[in-house]
Amino acid sequence: MTTRPPTDYAMDPALRPIAREPLSAPIRLDPYDPAWPRVFAQLAAGIEAALGATAVAIHHAGSTSVPGLSAKPVIDIVLVVPDPNDEAAYLPALEAIGYRLHMREPDWFSHRLIKRDDPAVNMHVFADGCPEIDRMLAFRDWLRAHDDERRLYEAEKRRLATKTWAYVQDYADAKSGVVEAIIARASR
Predict the structure, then answer these.
(1) Cα separation, 174 vs 164, whole angstroms
(2) d(Cα 176, Cα 3) in Å, to the nearest integer?
(3) Which value, in Å, is the radius of gyration of the alpha carbons in the chain?
């Protein structure tokens, strides 16, 4: 969601995504589906059962968490753990229930991106107390409470979704201007 520092994956293979998936297509946006919160709740219950106390918190984030907002049909989850770098504490248990490590970003809050295909999930793993968690949840909550901001964000998403993107992250990065403007208003 927030602008990441530029990463030259060719120059720093340690930061290279585990499996960077080319897109080379427009982004698919679906109308809001009222089933998305139920799908999240089921996923969160499975994560909590698998991780126990290692899961400090599990949040529904991203566009599927905002009623009325069109979204890529991918549930975004924020998983809060004591230390994202301690992958042995959470990754094997998540792999056992169908998730796979997709990307490590050690220089950006030690972020890990973990994916699942069915249902489609992007899980963002951060440490307890990470400021990015608060930003993501503040953005979600602001969009939930402000229809005008939700419409503004959706219009930008729709405009950008018609373009062809090499990678989904390129689309996400292109939204950063409107996202940062909305977060600034939410922070006043």
Answers:
(1) 12
(2) 6
(3) 16
Do the bridges between strand 120-127 and strand 75-81 make them parallel or antiparallel, or are there none, so unpaired?
parallel
What's the predicted TM-score (pTM) here? 0.88
Indicate the helix (H) or strand (E) that contains 9.
none
CATH class held by domain 21-186 = alpha beta
Domain positions in the chain: 21-186
**Tens-digit pLDDT profile for residues 16-56:** 555 556 667 789 999 999 999 999 999 999 999 999 999 99
Per-residue pLDDT tens digits for 99-131: 999 999 999 999 999 999 999 999 999 999 999
DSSP labels, 76-145: EEEEEES-TT-GGGTHHHHHHTT-EEEEEETTTTTEEEEEEETTEEEEEEEETT-HHHHHHHHHHHHHHH
CB burial readout 14-43, b (16+ within 10 A) else e:
eeebeeeeeeeeebebeebeeebeebbeeb
Residue (of 88, 136, 89, 76) closest to 109 by Cα position: 136
Q: Is the dihedral of CA 111, 112, 113, 116 positive or negative?
A: negative
